[in-house]
Amino acid sequence: MKRTVSFLFALMLLFVSAAYADDGFSTSYTYGYDYWEDVQESPDAYRVKTVLDSTNLGMDKLDNQVLRKPQSLFVKDQELYICDTGNNRIIQVHVSGDRYDVVRVINAVKGSAEDYELAESFNLKSQEYEKAITERVKAEEKLAEMTGTSQEEENSEAAAVMEEVQESVNEVLGTESTTEAPEEVSASDAEIEAATLALEQAREREEQIHQETVEAEEKAKAQGCSIWQYDAWQKDGEGNIVSVLNTPNDIAVDDTGNIYIADTNNYRVIKMDRDCNLIWEFTKPLDATFDQSQNFLPKKIVVDVAGRVYALCQNINKGLVKFEEDGVFSGFIGANAVSVSMVDYIWKRYFQTKEQRAQTANFVPTEYENICIDADGFIYATTTVFSEGDLRWDNAKPIRRLNSLGNDILIKSDKIPPIGDIEWISGGGEATGPSKLVDITVLNNDMYVALDRVRGRLFGYDSQGVMLWAFGTKGNVDGAFNGAISIEHIGHNLLVLDQLKNSITVFEPTEYGKTIYSAIDTYLSGEYDESAALWQEVLKLNANYPLAFRGIGRAVLRQNKYKEAMEWFELAHDRENYGRAFKLYRKEWVESNIWWIVLVVALLLIVPLAIGMIKKLKWEVIMHEHSKVRK
Amino acid sequence: MSIAKSASKGVKPLRSTSEKTESRKAWWKRYLASMKYGLHVITHPFDGFWDLIHEKRGTIAAANTFLILFLITRVLKLLLTSFQFISAPIQYINVFQEMGSLALPFIILCLANWAMTTLFDGKGRFKDIYMAMCYALIPYILIQIPMIVVSNMLTYEEGSFYTVLLSFSVIWCVFLVFVGLMEVHDYGPGKTFIFLIVTIFGAAVIIFLLLVFFSLLGDALSYFISMYREIVFRLN
Asked: 0.90 cut: is pTM over it?
């Protein structure tokens, strides 16, 4: 409720400020969460720099084809690649300062004629092989039919009984027998023998062609054939071998300039050089671990420094499909663990019938939503399949950082793990429920920004998993999104792709955002005093910024001002650092007050002793007096 | 005569004030003794609780004091413990609400226990039960107040000492409640345990009845109010 009100208020502010702003761009509403998980409004960390749509990019002059359902962005150095998925093409844009120039449009890949021939021969062989298989299957069926009828004959007695029953039924019903006696296929032994022989031959032929196919494949491999998805290729009029992209969903570029494209509906990942000459096609792994009944539908790809390709595939829930540099499938990494709640398990195991169990879905691991690779080669993955209850206790893990073994090593030092919004309205409908993080991008210093599809928001986190800021909203104004789908960064600028508005929103950090970044930068490079000064700047702009408290605290602690550091850490609710400062403070305090402590302890020991002695003396005196009286 | 009368008049109130001060002094003496007796109760619970009730060593005034001290301890703990150990949202804490949310269940549990045990030949009167329960809170007060100070002298890593003592105080209290009820009602341990559980159910029933009562009361009130309004409206 509070949230909605503040949100509406922010929206109002947004319109008001938009009316007065002279740059014409409205600012997005930025907020953060405090220790008590309350929303704290904050100054804007980012402002909209520009919105790139088809017109801005000059697509109308180029080929008059507007962007259609773009799915992904990729940035390498100053080159921005837009996967214009709906138009089966990729647009390369050169970014220099405020200029965005379309460099080229990639919609096909060129292959070499030799490879095409090799692939053709191999493909013909495999077609032949498939034919042989169908023939063999036919022969098998025929034989089975014959032996099947002979079996039927054996069961003729039962069949006769059945016929009688049928007749009596017919009599009762007064209808004539309409069923004819089953056609007697009298297969003689000779015919069966012939069929068996035919099957034998078919099998031999299949075996032989299989051998030939394997040979052809090996030959193709040996000669470095790069075309493996033959169906997608064709010769054009000039004799060039080309293959047109079909629904390219993602693109990646490695350090040497090779381009990788997830060409989803061609069932392949293309690796090509910067001039679009094919280097390799990654196709469906013919491996027992890969479900062969599924098509190979790569949706998202990343490439590491060694040229290994990781593909996120539709309908594959074993993790990311990993290809070695030479194109060999080398297994899955980072499979999502199957999560079953206790209640679900007990319900399914003990209270459902077998039929019910068969009908309900099995417990299957979930798929990832998107992947991204950082400079160190760690893959960041997001997932949007989880139950709401698992989020808070860090069972859902919507953001993961996968190492080479596929284990999640994301650092989460904050009270709440990075899950996007901490509070949300439940109950279904648009813009309710937890954040669904569709994409993620990793900035320098291991900071990352996740993009929420549900409410069109961006969430920035530092390397420790502490939220830096959150902003964004749904809507049509600049800086709001309808169908946020992909996020990328150039330096500290953020680019967000909207698949419904067909536009890219470029955000640049404000003074506030820049100060936060440089404060983190300077701290990490060891300039603690400067960092503290910058955090002070941040506090001037936003007095409710926990990271600033912590940052100043750490800098102050390094200057050996323990008491002051403790105060800052208490403001930041940072127990660990507070403990560190407090230990030092306590030591210092004890050292400087040691004489007082000794004095107090001594007094505590001496005073009761003295009192006891005085009492004793008194008693003795009294006893003495008494004895006097008696005498 | 008149002089004598006035003299006697003058003397009498003088004597009565001295009597009053005497009795007040005696009351204070008894009160302080019963407070001090609390230390004996928590260290020798079996004898202590028996004598508390049957030898009239306890006073209701002392019991009230302990309950109030308990509530104050609780609030102080929330407000003054180092943030490393308790992260209470201070901006949301309402001291009286905090106290009420402890005192009310306490009274309801005493009431439920009295209601249940009276039916099953428990010897304790409500006054006795209340007194025993209040005396059983003493370890909580005695341990937790110093622990508030101690928490400000420890770091989070050294917190195991703190948490162990805190849980020790709570366990001690629970033990005292158990023994106290046993002695008050002259029950065996098994029966006491069963009646502890029954008491909780009884408390639930009381809370339910209270809710029903108040909601019905509200309905009845609104009925009469609307009737009054209707009549006033018609008369005008």
From this structure: no
